[in-house]
């Protein structure tokens, strides 16, 4: 993760002037990489290339942060210079960059490692409540603080700051944790928080991971029907204001409501938008949150009241971005089939194909099982832009992994409830990103936490799990299956995935406390940036 900062130009690398003689157009046209990883594509015009041949170009400007090797596609002259410096390059066909012999035009990929930046994790913050001020019923107030568990590689102590909560009366605001690079390399950081509320207007347990801010987030959770008091929480840990747009996918398709357009989240602040202002009456909304100028950390606080009786709450982070296969590990089933209130649907899957119609096959695998369905896989048709809720009731009490494979990119999450009366709780379980490199996971304080490891590999995987005491445990994850192991609340573990990567999630599941969050990829996992010439 990079430091939240403006997109101002960086200083050129020292000593690089002699290595580049014809890349000014490319270096000047390269877009800065987003702070949460990804690929940047920039093009150099022929005019810029010609200008580059007329005078020496400055050294390329490298983005700072957690991004991995940067590959610059430039010209043959750079290839010659790189070779003279002993740099390994790969030559690919391209046309129109520099004059060359007929049929002998090429581009170059030049590996380069930008300076490492700090790792930053932003938390959800305190649980919020509305209507407690009789003089201003719309004003929010802190209902319970968030207890944090954090850790960094090498035992580095994170620096903590607090964002201003301008929409909350005397609000404590969410915590931001930062650790600097170590010996020129990104320092892995993990943090998670939890909170318990037991009041007449709000009750339940919430847990969530502290994560990087992002330019795009998908929130698959919540409701804007009677009894729900859900809140969209936007946190900007940077030093540049963010312009945020919230797109709502609902029963009639995609829309950007007035309340979701042009939201300004000032640097170092938190903004809160009621979900009812964005999607009033929507039973199964899904939100796409996009930011400009600076990334934001988006989450949703979901809470429910039934006939003046609070029925649970959760703090929900972002789900995986749409892709043709999503994996939701660590889904708990707490209510037995046929139990009282089961008609209310204790466990359900919410799905969306945002861009195109799709057929999605849903497979549910019980903890400890190998590839194959616990129940018969279901194939459902998805209409582009319209969320679908699928009933998963009928599962026995236990922990499951839900796998969705579709003909077009989809995203989704599972809602699980422990009941429907006083003292019950619910939680949202989001699709997890794949962990392909060693990563830290923080286990927030809470009752009987468990860690689920899910593999989509066609071979058995061995995953290393190391606690704070340095003792490593090897966990065998079956082919296309999942395994759940107990972990210690308030501890930080290091996960070393197998060769094919795994998905992981922390889960809490008791009668009065249901919650969970996916394990994000580690800060030290590199992400390549590639710049191509025209």
Description:
The protein has 534 residues and is mainly β. The protein is built from 4 helices and 37 strands. Strands 22, 23, 24, 25, 26, 27 and 28 form a 7-stranded antiparallel beta sheet that branches. The protein has a 5-stranded mixed beta sheet with strand order 9-18-14-20-21. Strand 31 (461-466) and strand 32 form a beta hairpin. The radius of gyration is 24 Å and the shape is globular. The two termini are 30 Å apart. Residues 1-105 have low confidence and may be disordered.
Descriptive key words:
534 residues, mainly beta, seven-stranded antiparallel beta sheet, five-stranded mixed beta sheet, 5% helix, disordered N terminus
**Number of alpha- plus pi-helical segments:** 4
- Low-confidence segments, given as residue ranges, are 1-105
- Principal-axis shape equals globular
Termini separation comes to: 30 Å
Give a count of the beta strands, DSSP E runs of length 2 or more: 37
* SSE class: mainly beta
What is the percent of helical residues? under 10%
Describe the sheet with the most strands. 7 strands, antiparallel
Summarize the structure.
5% of the residues lie in helices and 43% in strands.
Describe the protein's topology.
Blueprint: H1 24-29, H2 46-54, E1 70-74, H3 76-84, E2 90-93, E3 106-112, E4 119-122, E5 127-130, E6 140-144, E7 147-152, E8 159-162, E9 164-165, E10 175-179, E11 189-198, E12 203-210, E13 216-220, E14 231-236, E15 242-250, E16 253-255, E17 263-265, E18 269-274, H4 275-279, E19 286-292, E20 297-306, E21 309-316, E22 323-333, E23 347-352, E24 358-366, E25 378-382, E26 388-391, E27 398-417, E28 426-430, E29 439-442, E30 450-454, E31 461-466, E32 472-477, E33 482-486, E34 492-496, E35 503-510, E36 513-518, E37 529-531
Parallel strand pairs: 1-37, 9-18
Antiparallel strand pairs: 1-3, 2-3, 4-10, 5-6, 7-11, 8-10, 11-12, 13-19, 14-18, 14-20, 15-16, 15-17, 15-19, 20-21, 22-27, 23-26, 23-27, 24-25, 24-27, 27-28, 29-34, 30-33, 30-35, 31-32, 31-34, 35-36
């Amino acid at each position: 993760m990079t430091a939240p900062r403006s997109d101002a130009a960086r200083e050129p690398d020292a000593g690089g002037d002699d290595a580049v003689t014809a890349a000014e157009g490319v270096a000047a046209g390269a877009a800065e990489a987003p702070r949460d990883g990804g690929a940047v594509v920039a093009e150099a015009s022929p005019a810029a290339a010609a200008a580059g041949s007329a005078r020496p170009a400055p050294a390329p400007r490298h983005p700072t942060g957690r991004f991995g090797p940067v590959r610059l596609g430039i010209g043959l002259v750079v290839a010659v210079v790189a070779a003279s410096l002993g740099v390994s390059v790969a030559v690919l066909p391209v046309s129109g960059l520099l004059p060359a012999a007929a049929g002998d035009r090429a581009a170059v990929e030049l590996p380069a490692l930008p300076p490492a930046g700090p790792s930053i994790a932003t938390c959800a913050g305190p649980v919020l409540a509305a209507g407690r001020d009789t003089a201003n019923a719309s004003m929010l107030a802190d209902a319970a603080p968030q207890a944090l568990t954090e850790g960094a590689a090498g035992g580095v102590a994170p620096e903590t700051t607090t964002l201003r909560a301008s929409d909350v009366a005397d609000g404590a605001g969410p915590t931001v944790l930062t650790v600097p690079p170590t010996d020129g390399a990104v320092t892995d950081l993990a943090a998670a928080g939890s909170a318990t509320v037991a009041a007449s207007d709000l009750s339940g347990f919430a847990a969530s991971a502290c994560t990087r801010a992002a330019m795009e987030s998908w929130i698959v959770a919540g409701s804007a029907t009677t009894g729900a008091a859900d809140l969209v929480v936007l946190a900007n840990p940077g030093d540049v204001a963010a312009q945020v747009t919230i797109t709502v996918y609902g029963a009639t398709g995609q829309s950007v409501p007035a309340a979701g357009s042009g939201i300004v989240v000032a640097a170092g602040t938190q903004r809160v938008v009621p979900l009812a202002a964005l999607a009033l009456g929507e039973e199964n909304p899904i939100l796409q949150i996009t930011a400009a100028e600076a990334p934001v950390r988006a989450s949703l606080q979901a809470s429910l009241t039934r006939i003046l009786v609070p029925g649970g709450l959760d703090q929900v982070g972002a789900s995986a971005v749409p892709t043709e296969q999503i994996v939701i590990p660590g889904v708990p089933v707490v209510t037995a089939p046929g139990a009282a209130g089961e008609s209310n649907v204790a466990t359900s899957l919410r799905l969306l194909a945002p861009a195109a119609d799709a057929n999605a096959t849903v497979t549910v695998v019980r903890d400890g099982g190998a590839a194959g369905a616990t129940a018969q896989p279901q194939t459902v048709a998805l209409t582009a832009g319209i969320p679908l809720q699928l009933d998963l009731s009928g599962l026995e009490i236990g922990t499951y992994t839900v796998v969705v494979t579709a003909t077009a990119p989809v995203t989704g999450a599972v809602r699980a409830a422990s009941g429907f009366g006083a003292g019950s709780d619910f939680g949202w379980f989001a699709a997890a990103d794949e962990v392909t490199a060693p990563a830290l996971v923080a286990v927030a304080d809470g009752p009987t936490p468990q860690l689920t490891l899910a593999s989509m590999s066609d071979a058995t995987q061995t995953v290393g799990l190391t606690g704070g005491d340095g003792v490593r445990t090897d966990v065998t994850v079956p082919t296309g299956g999942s395994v759940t192991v107990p972990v210690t609340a308030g501890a930080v573990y290091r996960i070393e995935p197998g060769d094919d990567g795994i998905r992981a999630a922390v889960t809490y599941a008791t009668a009065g406390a249901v919650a969970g969050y996916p394990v994000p990829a580690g800060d030290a996992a590199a992400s390549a940036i590639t710049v191509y010439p025209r």
